[in-house]
Amino acid sequence: MKAAGKCELLIQYLESKNNILFLTTSTRYREHHWDVPKTTHLARRIKQHLDLKRKHVTIINVANLMIHECEGNISGGRGNNCGVPGAKLLDERKNPTGHHRCWASINNKDDQLYKISRDLFKSQAVVFFVSVRWGQTNSVYQRLFERLSWIENRVTTLEEKPIPELNKLEAGIVLFGQNWNDEEVLKTQKQNFKWFGWKVPDELSFCWQYTKNAEDESAESYCDAAKEFEKLLQVALPNISRRLTKRQGKGGQ
Question: DSSP code of 25?
């Protein structure tokens, strides 16, 4: 399996890192605990593997956070007002580095973007785990990424120096879709990371698309995709997969 090989490369590359951040973005009904999105399932499995290697990995499920929509201050009536010094979040607990500058974080007291930026500034590598829906990244990821625009804008438009904590950050994305446009989405998001000033090694990103037939929307196809995903796990993470299967056979979760 081509995707399994790329997944193995991702894992091997992360074994040389520490302080790794996984951001999962796919969604299911919260009461269906048994129905874990494929990308989230994969992120958890990789974390289990890296835990055995004594690597520090943090997983944040972005869908569980209150992330308000981007206010579009980059192109507002006053011109570009995104990430200006006046947008600094004045809360040392939420913004210990002082680098978080986003008006939506100030204007919405319940906004939780700081939970992501706070960990992002401590990380050597970040990997986004994202589902492809209707030929694009899902809405949770898109909302998050738009809300991070101030990271890029501070350098390009405001002409400030890059945020020191992000100078060496390596970024990647794992995309899972059913039947359309995954390769193009992957290319677009890797370019976005480069515009953010992040390093984008090829090993940190890959996409998995069950079928190349964009017209295949059969129920059988979606069921077969789930089975194919399990095969990917068995190939890319055989030791973790065997351990979990054995534990589940004894009544574990």
Answer: -
